[in-house]
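Late entry, cobalt (II) ion complex.
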Amino acid sequence: MELLKKLTECAAPSGRESKLRSLIETEMHSCCDEIYTDALGNLICRKNGNGKKLMLAAHMDEIGIIVTFIDKNGFLRFSAVGGVRDYNCVNRTVIFENGTRGIISFENKNKPSGSDKMYIDIGAGSRAEAETLVSIGDTAAFVGEYAELGNRVCTKAADDRAGCYALIRAMQQGGKTDNDIYAVFTVQEELGLRGSKTAAFSIKPDMGIAIDVSSTGDTPESVELNLKLGEGPGIKIKDSSYIMHPQVRDFLIDCAKKADVPYQLEAAANGGTDAGAIQFAGCGTPSGTVSIPTRYIHSQTELIDTRDLENTVKLIKTVIETELM
Ligand code: CO
Ligand code: ZN
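Prediction complete; structure with ligand written out below:
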């Protein structure tokens, strides 16, 4: 899991994905015919084929914060980049692109509250000192330790570095077919599936599949969801961004059977993936999502099962090797 550790430890909040992009580019060189970065920053890795176009997408960006104001004492005010929950901010550490670290705290120490009542302490004593380290509009990612817990991994940004990992490994292991494969590592998913929208627009795939994390229903008193950790990748029929095209649903189920991989059907009330944007490409593109079951999504301690991850690699490898009709 050395590669997964490297991917999750990289800081790449939405809009500032370049460090992670170079890391992924290094991994992808050996297994692609063509690699390029588009105008928004999506990394597009193509394995040429004469057949139909298959777009596979995993997003590079992670949630974070953006600086909105610096007060006279050097404290920063901020707003969220993506779906940051207030209770996941308190007493957490963030890291800026230049390495500056800050601690998030809140005004009334007895009463945790919304981000408008929170601030970041970067150790500066004045506005002038703070401004030597950060500027308005700078983004930072959360800091989280990578830890292996038996078969499970606890880390920040499993959303969606787990998906990036699965896509990299599947491309490295996948054999050649007639499919024209586009492995796309997208930007700005957490801000509303923005990168995948433009990537899909330019590629015009015949089918699109996103690989992303999805919430489980297997913790005490949690909402009732079918997904459980350790029981295989999810085939996501629905979330709030799309309903999976029946052709893609059948294709993914067939591939799971062919790969001899356990899978879990999933219909979620909330959330969205790049598949929600890909479906609108061209005159409409059948799209779907393979999900990696994950607990505590959008915290610094997301929890995944490595067996699910390896089964996702197997499934995506089979998807790559199965000719689209
Ligand atoms: Co997310
Ligand atoms: Zn995600």
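The mean pLDDT is 96. Will revisit in the morning.
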